[in-house]
Write a structure and sequence with these properties.
Layout: E1 2-7, H1 16-21, E2 24-33, E3 37-38, H2 42-51, E4 55-61, H3 68-81, E5 90-94, H4 103-121, E6 126-130, H5 131-138, E7 147-150, E8 170-174, E9 179-183, H6 187-191
Parallel strand pairs: 1-2, 2-4, 4-5, 5-6, 6-7, 7-8
Antiparallel strand pairs: 1-9, 2-3, 8-9
């Protein structure tokens, strides 16, 4: 079992050295939200994770009222500006708000966002969501993407899995004082979900 965390601008400056010493093996940092917002701490977090030999993940907070292609391009541009992808890096879509859109439109947005990221970055993104949100149909058609499930009220490694998925990949099991996650596998198994092309010299 690998232990991880996820962070955003709400945490401010993150002590990545300390987390690495305490056994954090992977992490996700918020990069973008919607079509324009960039997390001002993302570049520092991306570097901090890499310097501490963690499996690096970047995530985008979805705003389903916007253009999924524009949001995907914004996300990938910000990741590129922070140093880009290396072998094993993970990308994720944070899908937890409908922005008052009906479920079928939220799901359509998410499917298109994931398609664009997969095509352009050659990474099949992980989808972060929670049980009741998925049960409303907001995640329909996303079963082909790994599930990162938020279930802090369940024992570590034992979350309920909502449809359309049949299994979970990452479990966010705690949100206090920091978002904490687990992956039931090895580092090699986790990085196999990430970027595969070797970085050009």
């Amino acid at each position: 079992m690998l232990h991880g965390i996820d962070v955003s601008n709400w945490q401010g400056a993150v002590d990545w050295d300390r987390h690495a010493r305490n056994g954090v093996a992977f992490a996700f940092a918020k990069a973008t939200e919607g079509g324009r917002f960039t997390d001002r701490w993302f570049g520092r977090n991306w570097t901090g994770m890499r310097e501490n030999w963690m499996v690096c993940g970047a995530y985008h907070f979805a705003r389903p009222t916007g253009d999924p292609e524009a949001q995907a391009n914004h996300f990938l541009q910000v990741v590129g500006q922070a140093g880009g992808l290396r072998r094993g890096d993970l990308l994720a879509l944070d899908l937890e708000t409908s922005d008052r859109m009906p479920p079928h439109k939220v799901a359509r947005f998410a499917r298109r966002w994931c398609q664009v990221v997969t095509a352009q970055a050659e990474v099949r993104p992980v989808v972060y969501t929670y049980l009741t949100f998925a049960q409303k149909g907001n995640c329909d058609g996303l079963e082909g993407y790994p599930l990162w499930i938020s279930a802090p009220d369940h024992p570590t490694g034992r979350p309920d899995v909502p449809g359309p998925w049949r299994r979970w990949t990452i479990h966010q099991h705690s949100t206090r004082p920091l978002d904490r996650n687990v992956f039931l596998g090895t580092r090699a198994e986790l990085t196999s979900l990430g970027y595969r092309r070797r970085r050009s010299a």
